[in-house]
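Researcher:
Attend to token order:
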Amino acid sequence: MSRPRLRHIAFVVQDAKEMADFYTSKFGMSLFHTDPDGSHFVTDGYINLALIQQRLDGDVPTGFNHFGFQVESVEPFLETLEPKPALRGGDRPFAEYRAIDPEGNWFDLSAHGFLPPGAGEL
């Protein structure tokens, strides 16, 4: 099996559009997805940066939220990680499972990667 690769970092931000504009204009990243809630997703072609729009009625503070590994297959991790990774629900095109490390940090596991299906490398 190939080594898992870090391919995704997520931050909760106060203004996702402004942040996406910053990273696309200053660092040449490409915007590849915008969620209905206003979250923006940009990439350098290798790392996906999720800029999650903070909700005024939510209790999640701004700042680092989670990271994600692209893996060849999720199944071996389902057998070895404790607590067991949880299947992410809904129509998320980016990550299949959410897990937690010993210090309580969230991370995602994805066999198909962190770009939308059909996007290829941007």
The first helix runs from residue 16 to 27. Residues 7 and 25 are 21 Å apart (CA to CA). The helical segments are 16-27, 75-80. The chain has a mean pLDDT of 89.
